[in-house]
Amino acid sequence: MQIKLNGVAPLTDLGVIRVEGDDAARFLHGQLTQDFSVLGLSEARLAAFCSAKGRMQASFYGFKRGHSEILLVCSRDILAATLKRLSMFVLRAKAKLSDASNDFVLYGLAGDAVTIATENIAGYADTAWAKVDIGQISLINLYPADGARRLLWLAPAPANAPSGESLSLADWQWGEVRSGIAMITEPIVDAFVPQMLNYESVGGVNFKKGCYPGQEVVARSQFRGTLKRRAYLAHSDAPMKAGDEVFQAGDASQPCGSVAQSAAVPIGAARGGFEAIVSLQVAAFEAGDLHLGSADGPPLSVAPPPYPLLADI
């Protein structure tokens, strides 16, 4: 049986950072991998916050609620540390950062729930990172999961849940894995440059914008030679979790990659087990015979991501 993601899931694993003030967009433009200075009210951005070495400290769905208010949606387990670190760079900018998680309600919509939510919106754009507002409700298109359309739904608290069948957070997280886009959580902070998670291929990096922390490393990874590590989809009968190491059978001495995000396969699927987004050396993916935890650990079946990769430049 092929599972099709469908329904409405409360996204209690996510939180919201509010950035407000006349310099909100300019401030974020100088800190993240995306160009927030030209961000319109009908679009969102996937973006990363990197260290000086180009390693991802956090990732966000970012969008404007108004011309001087930007919301950054990220994993709750890194929100406090990310807010503290970002705030260190505000200096004289007219921008105020705060934890606004309790001010908003977040849901994930998939399949029929997306159709219900958007059926009365004239000119609705069904493309990734497009955004539309219905009163105080914001809808952001996400990448699909096995062809199932997905939306991020945000409204000021308190708010009634959007219409649709109930979908568990666990099954939504499986859809996140199937979309091929990993979000940074605590176990993988400082583990990857954006290209190791394919962020340049899914709208997460703007190579034409100005400087930000780690920009030289990120740009050099893209423009000098072949990228040596990419993100793929993996399946295993054994449990997987973010941060787990992956080995190639021919080299037991060191890992060739690691798990970035994982989830259990929903009950009723054609096969059970666990699925993950794994960041691997391209050579190891091509060689195959990959295992979890050690060179003779549980076998992994690994497939390309569900979207085309931006060609190396």
Overall description:
The chain has 313 residues and is an alpha+beta fold. The protein is 16% helix and 34% strand. It contains six helices and 16 strands. Strand 12 and strand 13 form a beta hairpin. The mean pLDDT is 93.
List the helices and strands and how they pair.
Elements: E1 7-10, E2 14-20, H1 24-29, E3 44-50, E4 56-66, E5 69-75, H2 76-87, E6 96-99, E7 104-110, H3 112-118, E8 131-134, E9 137-145, E10 148-156, H4 169-179, H5 215-223, E11 229-236, E12 245-248, E13 257-264, E14 274-281, H6 282-287, E15 290-292, E16 299-303
Antiparallel strand pairs: 1-7, 2-5, 2-6, 3-4, 4-5, 7-10, 8-9, 9-10, 11-14, 11-16, 12-13, 12-15, 13-14, 15-16
Features:
single chain, 5-stranded antiparallel β-sheet, 2 domains, Elongation Factor Tu (Ef-tu), domain 3, 313 residues, Gyrase A, domain 2, 16 strands, alpha+beta
Task: Provide a compact summary of the structure.
The protein is α+β, with helices and mostly antiparallel strands and 313 residues long. 16% of the residues lie in helices and 34% in strands.
